[in-house]
Amino acid sequence: MSENRTRFRLDQRRAPIYEALEQFRQMRVVPFDVPGHKRGRGNPELTAFLGQQCVGVDVNSMKPLDNLCHPVSVIREAEELAADAFGAAHAFLMVGGTTSSVQSMVLTVCKRGDEIILPRNVHRSVLNALVLCGAVPVYVNPEVDKRLGISLGMKREQVARAIKEHPNAVAVLVNNPTYYGICSDLRAIVKMAHDAGMLCLADEAHGTHFYFGGGSLPVSAMAAGADMASVSMHKSGGSLTQSSLLLIGPNVHPGYVRQIINLTQTTSGSYLLMSSLDISRRNLALRGRQVFHQVADMAEYAREEINAVGGYYAFGKELCNGNSVFDFDTTKLSVHTLDIGLAGIEVYDLLRDEYDIQIEFGDLGNLLAYLSIGDRQRDVERLVSAMAEVRRRFGKPDKANLMKQEYIEPEVAVSPQDAFYAEKESLPLRQTQGHICSEFVMCYPPGIPILAPGERITGPILDYIEYAKEKGCSMTGPEDAQIERLNVLKGV
């Protein structure tokens, strides 16, 4: 690995993919390859919409521009620069989103029948990977903050117990952080996993900025010694949607990881996405610490102002207890809404429909406003004002009929893969109680399954689904788009 890293002089002011595309643009090459729009000439409406600057570099792999499936030049250099910036042994540019990164991470370490220790409040991409590879989840069920109704992190003793009871598990997977900004004791979990001969994987979809926190933000996966981390650059890092990174430590073989990635990732890697990763990495390496310090300050200002409105609770580091909430991401603006008599999803809809403000997501009791490198102070002030108006105009004195429960402990009866591919039947929603589900049901975002394949359907789960539908949550996963029926294992 060290020999490979010396091929290029690592200068974080460089952006090799972007530079290669600019050189290519100047060459005025006549295209007799794909894509078929031929630098936009074949699709003038698309060119008018996106701009010539954009479609002109929407090109195919070729020697001057390297190949994502087997990079040897500019893409390889961009990967090495990303690894250097993030403190990893190697980095992979991912163009299938962090979903693809997470799936590649799990598929690298798991095969059919392997056990993997993980919290149940994981993103659907983790469980999708288990469907693909046939691994079996060992869930560490998180505690729930009873006031907020949200899942917390994994407690150290819970992880230790799971490792002791499942000594043949291949890995422990950790959310760093959760959607709400809650972090587990990652360093301790990494040590426990390594002491047991297991790898530690981190879903850092919402933790890109941890690498540039300068000690003021929670520890990053690579700094904590994790073996693999999926980093969603397009979230807080500023790259284009669907672009991501997969980081690995020194104990994981990069050649094998590449093979796993190439099983599912496109052979036509988008240079728009790759160049955005390249440019964004450069931006973060040069200015990330300063920028994210400003983001954290804006979030803290917003918390203070929203809490001053009354009724809302914008929570932060006061939740930290040294274990299930080991640390908190202060850039996250997570707000509890039930005390104004409205579900989070209702405030989410009102902010968009009445005030032209798009929030990241709202669930049954909370909402999340995502602050990152592109936010401005005046926009934060507009959000605070709008939330005050929502409370005044739409708040309700009675919250008795609002559901608080955000986490229901699952009963895993069958492995996700076996359940997904088993013979199944479709039943009306209420008739599925007691049966084993063969598909996913979730609110998206955040994309944490309410039900996953192989889990037994219970009355509280059905109550939750019906309530979420009633409140207007965006429900995804089942074959039946209306979620009036669910597929269950036949005869079970």
Give short descriptive properties of this protein:
disordered N terminus, Aspartate Aminotransferase, domain 1, alpha+beta, 3 domains, 492 residues, 20 strands, Molybdopterin biosynthesis moea protein, domain 2, 16 helices, Aspartate Aminotransferase, domain 2, four-stranded antiparallel β-sheet, 15% strand
Mean pLDDT figure: 94
CATH architecture of the largest domain: 3-Layer(aba) Sandwich
Number of domains: 3
Q: Which word captures the global form?
A: globular
- End-to-end C-alpha gap: 50 Å
Helix content: 25-40%
Largest sheet: 7 strands, mixed
Low-confidence stretches: 1-5
Share in β-strands:
15-25%
| CATH classification, class level of the largest domain | Alpha Beta
Quick one: CATH superfamily of the largest domain? Type I PLP-dependent aspartate aminotransferase-like (Major domain)
